[in-house]
Write a structure and sequence with these properties.
The chain is mostly beta strands. It has 1 helix and 24 strands. Strands 6-8-10-11-13-15-17 form a 7-stranded parallel sheet, with no helix packed on it. The protein is elongated. The chain starts with a strand and ends with a strand.
Length: about 300
């Protein structure tokens, strides 16, 4: 059925708990099924309000004044397939949609400034996500194990991508990183098995360890950033990698950085490199040419 929260349901506690003010949605009974229409009077979605809910659709009023989807607000609501987030929302808290395994689409709008850690982790059916230009930071593990995502476009306002943010997104074939990005943390794109090519813009200053670890289909990587240190295993076990361009100015190539890159035949190393880490090119069985240049 379709449920709209009415005054009698609020007062008698039949639909959900809205607290004393009637403006904070605290909880919805786990056994309630069907569709729930959330009224415009709601201004806050509380901690775990829809956690493990059996509802298959939750609709918000177009004029809603909700600012935040709180911690674990929709955690493991396994029947929800889509979510249209109200235009008033500015932040999505930790674990907000974690383990929503049926969620296929989440409509994010300009105005949202942050996606917190693990916000969409393990949303294995999520097929597409548009990162708004208002976002400044993507939290750690935010979209980890979203195995149905096929394409990703990071706009220029995003300055930081957290560790493991897109780890295990095994269907992603294309990632576009716009200039403006400064930091990409550890394992952000590790185990993205279908990623074929990546270009890192020249605004990037920090690349984390294990960044593209185990990206089995990655053939070409162009790094344009002003990075001083290339950390360990950035391209570890990228077994299809054939072509890589390193940024000018790097001083250190980390341990096992190209470990297991079996198809890499040649590489140019900038003259600024002073240290090459242990086993940096271990198991690079096809590597026959190593050049040093000023690039």
């Amino acid at each position: 059925g379709i449920y709209s929260l009415a005054a009698d349901e609020i007062n008698e506690g039949r639909a959900c708990d809205l607290g004393k003010s009637g403006r904070k949605l605290i909880s919805v009974p786990g056994g309630r099924t069907g569709i729930l229409n959330v009224p415009v009077c709601i201004e806050e979605i509380g901690f775990g309000a829809f956690e493990e809910s059996s509802l298959y659709a939750i609709n918000f009023d177009p004029n809603a004044n909700i600012l935040t989807f709180g911690y674990r607000s929709f955690f493991k609501a396994e029947n929800i397939t889509e979510m249209k987030i109200p235009a008033s929302v500015v932040s999505i808290d930790y674990y907000a949609f974690a383990n929503c395994t049926a969620l296929k689409s989440a409509e994010l709008h300009n105005g949202i400034t942050s996606i917190s850690s693990r916000a969409f982790i393990n949303c294995q059916s999520l097929e597409s996500i548009m990162i708004p230009t208002s976002i400044g930071e993507i939290g750690s593990y935010a979209f980890s194990n979203c195995r149905s995502l096929k394409e990703l476009d990071i706009p220029g306002n995003v300055t930081s991508i957290g560790e493991h943010a897109f780890y295990g997104c095994t269907s992603i074939e294309k990632i576009t990183l716009a200039p403006g990005l400064i930091t990409i943390n550890d394992s952000a794109f590790a185990q993205c098995d279908k990623l074929v090519e990546i270009e890192v813009p020249d605004t990037v200053k920090t690349l984390g360890a294990d960044l593209f670890l185990g990206c089995d289909s990655l053939k070409k990587a162009t790094l344009k950033g002003t990075v001083n240190v290339m950390r360990a295993r950035i391209f570890g076990n990228c077994v299809a990698l054939e072509e890589v361009t390193l940024p000018h100015g790097i001083h250190i190539i980390g341990d096992k950085m190209f470990n297991g890159c079996k198809k890499l035949t040649s590489i140019e190393i900038p003259s600024t490199v002073a240290i090459i880490g242990e086993e940096a090119f271990y198991e690079c069985k096809a590597l026959t040419t190593v050049k040093t240049s000023d690039l």
